[in-house]
Amino acid sequence: VRLVESGGGLVQPGGSLALSCAVSGFTFSVLAMSWFRQAPGKEREVVARISSDGTVTYYADSVKGRFTISRDNAKNTVYLRMNSLSSEDTAVYYCNGRIQSYDFWGQGTQVTVSS
Length: 115
Hints:
By secondary structure, this protein is mainly beta. It is built from no helices and eleven strands.
């Protein structure tokens, strides 16, 4: 199973960024997908989740109203749209796929919010 994130980079405070995660080697439509992030010196934390059929989403309080998770099962891809970014959003963002007790991870993509 391969998960490949893209879309990270440097953005100014208040800006927006869109991440993508392309999944291959597994039936994407059965996977619950999540985005996690890990800032320097901090533990990895969940940012957003989406059910396998895309009907149920969850957001961490810190990103609620600013981030949007979505998926396209025809393209085997999950997205994270991030608006109103601040320095506190600086982290490596990881894509996660889960089915039952199995977890699959991407390699991560760096998001840096700085002026």
